[in-house]
Amino acid sequence: MKEERTAYEEFASVYDMFMEDIPYEDWLENVCRILSDQGIRDGLVLELGCGTGTFTELLARQGYDMIGVDSSAQMLERAMEKKDQSGLDILYLLQDMRAFELYGTVRAAVSVCDSMNYILSEEDLEQVFACVNNYLDPEGIFVFDLKTIHYFRDVCGDCVLADSREEGSFIWENNWYEEEQMNEYDLTLFIREASGLYRREQELHDQRGYEITTVCQALERAGMRFVTVLDADTMQEPTDFSERIYVVAREHGKKKGTEHV
Fold first, then answer.
1. Domain limits, the chain
2. Which CATH architecture has domain 151-207?
3. CA pair distance 187, 174, nearest whole angstrom
4. pLDDT single digits (tens) 41-99
5. Fewest Cβ atoms closer than 10 Å to its Cβ: which of 62, 69, 146, 197?
6. Is the separation of the CB atoms in 70 and 10 below 8 Å?
């Protein structure tokens, strides 16, 4: 395995085009259902790993006051373009989710599209959870998804994905490393320029698969309380064949009336 890398640099320019089949509306329904079940139907919500802001805008349209955090300036540029077009009042921050800072606390934090899988060590995962716990209101909720080890090993495996459009094409090669529990993506992009010619770029991405017990232990060490885990497709208890899961955790350690100002 290679050292940790920055993802979504060149891919940011064509990300939305190739992700148009992502079931954002289904994810929105699921996440809003979880938040509602936890008594959070409005208020300030943070999205970690917000990318180009597609999901952030969907949550904003549901009535939540949104803050989006991402470590990719290129992805946030796209998010800001969408914000300018929609007129939605969203605050975007260029920050690392392992050490982000907010102006105050939020009612809930969410993270979708396997952003947490990009956190490659248990120590960093714990740090993310600690930051979230710090900026949640007392008993606030954190909802995040994860691709499972089953997905990386048995579904994605060592397969090759490809897609071709007039605006660009990509070849997405997957390599699973069982010992490290890591999946390496070798992404080759062909991006159409104004001249009509295509520019070739290459990116390497890493994602880690986590056992739910490992995630729960990291949450506990960070001071949070585990609430539940759900299969992202069925919204029921996960099975050995679940490909994506939602983890729900609760802030712990603050007393009501001690929110940041």
1. 11-147+210-250, 151-207
2. Single Sheet (2.20)
3. 9
4. 999 999 999 999 999 999 999 999 999 999 999 889 999 999 999 999 999 999 999 99
5. 197
6. no
Q: Are 124 and 254 in contact (CB under 8 A)?
A: no
β-bridge partners, 69:
48, 93
Q: Which CATH number fits domain 11-147+210-250: 3.30.43.10, 3.40.50.150, 3.20.20.150, 3.90.70.10?
A: 3.40.50.150
Token output for 140? 């606030």
Q: Using CA atoms, how far apart are residues 79 and 15, in angstroms rounded to an integer?
A: 11
Cβ proximity of 1 and 180 under 8 Å: yes
pLDDT tens across 208-224, in order? 999 999 999 999 999 99
The phi-psi region of residue 132 (left if phi > 0; otherwise alpha if psi is between -120 and 50; otherwise beta) is alpha
pTM (2 decimals)?
0.89
CA 104-139-215 angle, 5° bins: 100
Give the type of residue at 9.
E
DSSP secondary structure code for residue 157 in this structure? T
Place of tokens 């499972």: 148
17: confidence class by pLDDT, cuts 50, 70, 90 = low
